[in-house]
Design brief:
Helices cover 24% and strands 34% of the residues. By secondary structure, the chain is α+β, with helices and mostly antiparallel strands. It has a domain at 48-171.
């Protein structure tokens, strides 16, 4: 019985040690590998009288400019629109994303429209912080609320002036990411901690078999890339 008890305790300790192990990628990231936020201005059409009013002059200007591109000239003063809303479109693209990839899109009203329910976003270019266009967004909106009007009464549940388009943005150019600098890379902790940084460096050195990882501070571990990994293209 004693042997069985000792064996059971040993197994519990081993299992506890195994479950205590944490993958580095769960608590840190490689420096230079980051998501990129995109933004654009567009129009949502097909609304049921819940779009922007005449007070949102920028919506009227946008509709006039859009119609001109299609060869239709309409004086801005003649427009009476309640089925169109001006919106800001945002998206976050992961690092190393390539052309043809997709990303979810958040669409938010910027005029005095009351609801985007049932609307469709027209083709909208999305730009990065450098001003370059990385993606185009378009498609029907999914709104997490309802807004119903009848006999002068209105019932509204949750927020209807914002919605999302799953996979609504298609990348037109790759998101550039740089992970190497002077034959080295760096791992950055999501939460700075001297002990964790030291343990990560020790784990990497043990795995490779030589001292290539050195913690610079509580959040950054510098890793010198061995020549064999550089020459053979095994960096990844």
């Amino acid at each position: 019985m004693k042997r069985i008890g000792v064996l059971a305790i040993t197994l519990v300790v081993v299992c506890a040690q195994a479950t205590a192990a944490i993958r580095i990628k769960d608590i840190a990231y490689v420096h230079g590998v980051r998501s990129q936020q995109l933004i654009g201005y567009g129009l949502v059409v097909g609304l049921n009288g819940t779009g922007d009013t005449q007070r949102s002059t920028f919506t009227l200007q946008s509709v006039t400019s859009m119609l001109k591109r299609f060869g239709i000239t309409v004086p801005q003063s003649d427009l009476r629109l309640r089925n169109v809303a001006a919106v800001m479109v945002t998206a976050t693209v992961p690092g190393f994303a390539k052309e043809g990839g997709t990303a979810d899109v958040i669409v938010s009203s910027m005029g005095d429209g009351t609801s985007l329910q049932g609307g469709t976003l027209l083709m909208t270019p999305l730009s990065g912080i450098d001003g370059a266009v990385y993606a185009m967004a378009q498609g029907p909106l999914s709104v997490g609320g309802i807004s119903v009007r009848a006999n002068g009464n209105e019932v509204r549940r949750n927020h209807t002036a914002a919605g999302r388009i799953p996979g609504g943005a298609i990348l037109e150019r790759a998101v550039q990411s740089t992970i190497t600098q002077d034959s080295s890379i760096a791992v950055v902790l999501m939460e700075a901690d001297f002990t964790t940084a030291t343990r990560i460096a020790e784990a990497i050195n043990t795995k490779i078999g030589e001292r290539i990882a050195v913690p610079d501070d509580a959040s950054r571990i510098a890793i010198r890339i061995p020549r064999g990994f550089r020459d053979d293209g095994r960096l990844v």
